[in-house]
Design a protein that fits this description.
Blueprint (H helix, E strand, L loop, with lengths): L1 E7 L5 H14 L4 E7 L8 H11 L5 E11 L2 H13 L4 E6 L7 H6 L2 E4 L7 H20 L6
Parallel strand pairs: 1-2, 1-4, 3-4, 3-5
Helix pairs in contact: 1-5, 3-5
Length: 150
């Protein structure tokens, strides 16, 4: 299985970037990972333009997971179970999508195979990326039975 991460903009803060890189490195011990950063839209463009950019690079056979506040909220162990189910289904590629500051277009919501909420709280994009990567890493440590901080 391969995890692909598609998000709008770059991680600007060096501390969040260091954490992002660290969890990407840890996660890559369990699953092949690839990250694609999409250029942020200009103020007059909005989510539809970003949505077209995302759809343009999205593999049509990929299982798309959209991070959205209205998505399903899972515990760490439930996320691990979900990933195990994806593995059992034989999914080759899972793409995690984090939209821009204005959200995502209707086309992206329609394309999503699964909607995941990290929290009822609102995070910056930099934080959301790190939280997602850390939780995916934690899920694999649960699946493999490896010790990890609780």
């Amino acid at each position: 299985m391969k995890f692909r991460f598609v998000w709008i903009g770059k991680t600007k803060d060096k501390h969040w970037k260091a954490l992002q890189d660290e969890y990407m490195r840890r996660l890559s011990h369990f699953v092949k990972c690839e990250m694609t950063e999409i250029r942020e839209s200009a103020p007059h463009e909005g989510p539809d333009i970003e949505g077209k950019r995302i759809l343009g690079i999205l593999n049509q056979k990929s299982f798309a997971v959209l991070l959205d506040v209205g998505g399903k909220t899972l515990s760490s162990s439930a996320l691990a179970k979900e990933i195990e189910d994806w593995q059992l289904r034989g999914l080759k590629e899972v793409t995690f999508i984090i939209g821009g500051a204005e959200g995502v277009s209707a086309a992206i919501e329609e394309r999503a195979d699964f909607m995941l909420s990290l929290s009822f709280l609102t995070f910056t994009h930099d934080m959301a990326r790190v939280v997602l990567l850390e939780q995916l890493y934690r899920a694999f440590t649960i699946i493999k039975g490896f010790p990890y901080q609780k």
